[in-house]
Fold these 3 entries.
Entry 1:
Amino acid sequence: MSRRSALAMVFTVAFVGALAAVPAGADTSGAGSGGADQTALPVGDDPASAAEVDKVYSCQTSFNSNAPGAFNTGDWFNGDGTWDLTKKPSVDGAVTWPDAKVSITAAGVNRIISGNGLPTEETTGEFPVASSDDAYAFDRNPNSISAQTVTITLAKKPKVADEPTCLGMGTIGIFVNGVQFFNALDAGGRDAAAYEIQDSCDGHPEMSGTYHYHSGSRCVRENLDTGSGHSKLVGYASDGFGLYGTRGTNGETVNNSDLDECHGHTHKVKFNGKKQRTYHYHLTAEYPYTIGCYRGTPVSTNG
Ligand SMILES: [Zn+2]
Ligand SMILES: [Zn+2]
């Protein structure tokens, strides 16, 4: 079995487990539960110019429809505004990065995250996309993955700001495995996870070689968010607030309908080494996947 199908299988099993945890009679229908059905995820086009549930509040408001990237769609688009993750191809390969590094350290009131941007525990696909790869029919990402110099200084105790802030098109946060994440949009303003062909960990490189995710990487969810009950912290947004996996307090799957416009909520959770009441973001299986806007004050809208 290839790593890709092994991963797909593990994720499916985890998902079925999560569904089974929903109490009988609980309402799992409605737009907010799109995350529960991987075969009919909402295609999240149409970035918003204000904070809005189910949307990306995008700083960039006009997009080039001829932007480079995925140029063809396939049968994983259901034709009714939804797409099927289980049918979508991935970029081939399982490249390991032994030189990957990341460190997360406290320095007074700050948290300093530094590294070289490569995944410390996960593999990547082979980039540029090879002409022999089935992904090539849809997305010919010509970029190579390369080490970067990453230093992000965040407040250790971030505060909720008076107003939410829009998301830029570059780095908006970083996972604890050292991989940065971008918002859910591709260069054309479309749902990146639906259109772009990523590798089996849902990542790919951009022009300068920065490897990044646009969604809650299935590898992050499987490798970094093990256990039961409320998800573990899997990353930090550029406003300093923590990003957790897809499980709420009782282990139930979190959907957009459980979260605010920025894709977060406030309750007691483990943060800075102790359980405390704080705002935090959650990954969801559905768009916008990571965060929808900044609830706090970002170090810059692009991280
Ligand atoms: Zn990208
Ligand atoms: Zn939570």
Entry 2:
Amino acid sequence: MEEQKKKIKKPLGFARLIPKKCIACGARCEVECKPLAITMNDVGEPIIDLEKCTGCRRCLKVCPVDALEMYFTPEQLKQLEEWELARKASATAPQAAEVRPVEEETKAAAKFKEYSGVWVYVEQTDGKPAIVSGSYWGPGPI
Ligand code: SF4
Ligand code: SF4
């Protein structure tokens, strides 16, 4: 149960170079990589150190020819699948505020019964009740 509750972290993947796409623009990707995961080879193409890559995608954004892409390891793909399932499950699960305990529902229904047959007239402007209305709110005569 505790295991199920554990939050699954979305894997970010790693950047990689798409073969033959780099135009050696002057190391824009290297400059943009804050964790210093990129070094350039002797023809001006990036070499990405996976130990340092955080999957931030900054290098992808600055590359003028879209020569970089993200990829996921098999472990990350599995984790991504689990993350997606957990996300869908939490999206469809009723929120705590929406789930009213049966006991609470019963109490509310009983309370409303006390007021059956009571008519309430409230002066309103643009959907807002007039201030004086509050003076008349209270249990109705039984
Ligand atoms: S994804 Fe981020 S950390 Fe990884 S190589 Fe690109 S800029 Fe560097
Ligand atoms: S930003 Fe793109 S074109 Fe420039 S060096 Fe990096 S991969 Fe090559």
Entry 3:
Amino acid sequence: MAMLGLYTPFSRLNAVLNNKVVVVGAGIVGTCIAYELSNLGIKTVLIDKNIPGSGTSGASFNWINATYPKKPYSYNYLAQLSLNEFKDIEIDLNYPIDWYGSLEWTNSIADQNKILYEVKNLMKYPTFSKHKIINHIEANKLEPKFINFNNNNHIVYSEDDGYLNTKEFIKVLIDKIKFNGSKVIEECSYHKINYINNKISSVSTSKGEIITDQIVFACGIDTNKIFNKKLIKSPEPGIIIKSKPYKKIINRIIYGPGIHLYQQRDGKIIIGEQGILDIDDKNKLKNYPKHFISKSMEEKYINKIIKTGKLFLKEIESIPIDEVKIGWRPIPLDEKPIVGRLPHNENIYIATMHSGITLGPIIGKYVAKEISQNIEIQLLNEFRPSRLI
Ligand SMILES: Cc1cc2nc3c(=O)[nH]c(=O)nc-3n(C[C@H](O)[C@H](O)[C@H](O)COP(=O)(O)OP(=O)(O)OC[C@H]3O[C@@H](n4cnc5c(N)ncnc54)[C@H](O)[C@@H]3O)c2cc1C
């Protein structure tokens, strides 16, 4: 009760709000959903227990792609649709996204053959995002100065890929949500759903009660806690390094052996890694911290990343590091998105997935459609929560 004194009391909140949909979780997924609902004129309240974008979405590599690892094809197709959806949002928000494509290669012949096989397989389908296999000479025309492709002749060039400054993008979406007349409440934790005559009447939050009859949960790694059920695996960590602004050294997303990186418009370089965390260290990060728990552990992994990166980008040693984060991946039990109404209550909706940066826009569009028109979009049938609940 002491905490409530700091905030708007329940009764006032009820009077001011009176909404149709409450979206819990202002990561990329929940924010895209609230944006699309508010664009349809549906009164929406987006709440987050922290600051919008401070969950996994704020510690992601932010690569937008519909490339070969996205399987089965239905999942890949959803990603393709999301790439298109981004183009509409770019216009609506006047927020240009960097679509420079990606270059991927590996040093191991076995991995390389696997990639080529999977790219070929994807290309058998009626639609796929643009992929080309190029050699190191062609690749060095795209990245002329700094990247050593090590004479590789099988580099996957995915021309349609882009990257996003997700935190900035979430802010822009939120401005539009507010412009549309909907509400965004930060530092507001969801507590419970209230019912009258078996119908949802409101949700209780740390900032009071919000009247609503529909709730969307887009809570990322908190999904299991919210539903008191194991719907996602134990979150997997990934290290993200952000540099200070640096001279222009790369044009595209470079997915090299062991690490991947790109350079933002502001000159900052974003670096991710491919599973370098030791199991012992992973165990020490049990509470899902957003940063390493000691300076020495952080330095160990910076050194590992630089050592790996140096094999194809000598310049990596000179890049001035600004921040090192740990992101936690929300991966559903069968690795496919979980999107839809709960089987036992159609007014409770869930949207949890990995690759949420890529999928956010199409998920936002489809969830808003399903809720506003009370329909079921067939394309989502494979991803319904009923398969896990
Ligand atoms: C290292 C790393 C690299 C990645 N790279 C990529 C990539 O390149 N491309 C890609 O597409 N995807 C990538 N991903 C995956 C992607 O980042 C996630 O799928 C996506 O960010 C999930 O978004 P979300 O909105 O579901 O979750 P989040 O961003 O975590 O948002 C959930 C929100 O819910 C809030 N919340 C939770 N519980 C409550 C509560 N009780 N009350 C109120 N609010 C609550 C949290 O505070 C949080 O802000 C990567 C992930 C990691 C970790």
